[in-house]
Automatic annotation (TrEMBL):
This is Phosphoserine phosphatase. InterPro entries: HAD-like_SerB, HAD-like_sf, HAD_sf, PSP. SUPFAM superfamilies: HAD-like. NCBIfam families: HAD-SF-IB, serB. It comes from the Bacteria. GO terms for biological process: L-serine biosynthetic process. Pfam families: HAD. Residues 1-41 are annotated as: Disordered.
Length: 300
């Protein structure tokens, strides 16, 4: 088995390996070139290391041990199928740098209380649906005008987010944003980053004020998994062809089900179960993990 170990931060450059036979897979499934067909350097501070092994798990353990304490992100995976056909991403603290509900709570004067609940929910210590309803209730009577102000003043794409989405979609992949947050924000973030569709929860309003309620059903852990399965089935392939990325406990089901599940600046419970984690690089690391080079990146 040939397994690439892609590192989006400085590492040594391996020697070239012998060419591998051309892939017999369908041309619809885009594959990264074999190591010998190009330089192992993917971009500034990013390399491919080709390893021959009988199984992935021992290589992942060896790489993790070798890199312990170093500011390097690595992804060990099978060579074939590494370039994914679907990106499904969490929004808060993944594609954007904040938790929107915490920022709304700041405008309502209850950020300390809400953010504590958010942190515990993302660590998997609280039931997500119950925690969401409790936090939204604290936003009761907040003017809906604050939503746009919050978006304008607080919401920013994380570094590499737009490049990640645009590069994958330019190469034929689908890109979907799923969030336990709110459609007001996902619709705008999806447009800003280039996602093709988005799913999230709906804040209920009346008379220009938030009612403190959220629409049902709640989009949480299982709904994110359902979104992954539905979107891949609709496109005619399987979750193995997808890349899922997130940071909180409600992202775990989709991360575990995807062909490549990535924990981005994630809570410990997520980092422990993901195929790979990104703690140091920006979101373009997910492109390097798939074998894209910096020259392949689609940027503004």
């Amino acid at each position: 088995m040939r397994a690439p170990c892609s590192s989006p931060l400085p590492s040594s450059v391996p020697r070239q390996r012998r060419p591998r036979p051309p892939s017999a897979r369908s041309p619809q499934r885009s594959q990264a070139p074999a190591p010998a067909s190009r330089s192992p350097v993917l971009g500034p501070g990013a390399v491919d290391l080709a390893v021959e092994a009988d199984a992935i798990a021992p290589v992942r353990i060896a790489v993790a041990n070798a890199l312990e304490g170093l500011p390097v992100d690595a992804c060990v995976q099978h060579w074939n199928g590494r370039r994914k056909r679907l990106l499904i991403a969490d929004m808060d603290s993944t594609i954007i740098g904040c938790e929107c509900i915490d920022e709304l709570a700041d405008f309502a004067g209850v950020k300390d209380r809400v953010s504590q609940i958010t942190e515990r929910a993302m660590r998997g210590e609280l039931d997500f649906e119950q925690a969401l309803r409790e936090r939204v209730a604290m936003l009761k009577d907040l003017s809906v005008d604050v939503l746009q102000r919050c978006y304008d003043e607080r919401v920013r794409l994380n570094p590499g987010a737009r490049t990640l989405v645009r590069t994958m979609t330019a190469n034929g992949a689908g890109a979907f944003l799923v969030s336990g947050g709110f459609t007001f924000f996902t619709s705008r973030v999806a447009q800003a980053a280039g996602f093709q569709a988005n799913r999230a929860n709906t804040l209920i309003e009346a008379g220009g004020l938030l009612t403190g309620e959220v629409g049902s059903p709640i989009l949480g852990r299982e709904a994110k998994l359902a979104a992954l399965r539905e979107e891949t089935a609709a496109a005619g392939f399987t979750p193995a062809d997808a890349l899922a990325v997130g940071d909180g406990a409600n992202d775990l089901a989709m991360i575990n089900a995807a062909g490549l599940g990535v924990a981005y600046r994630a809570k410990p419970i997520v980092a422990a179960e993901a195929d790979a984690k990104v703690d140091y690089a920006d979101l373009t690391a997910l492109l390097y993990f798939q074998g894209y080079t910096a020259a392949d990146f689609v940027t503004d």
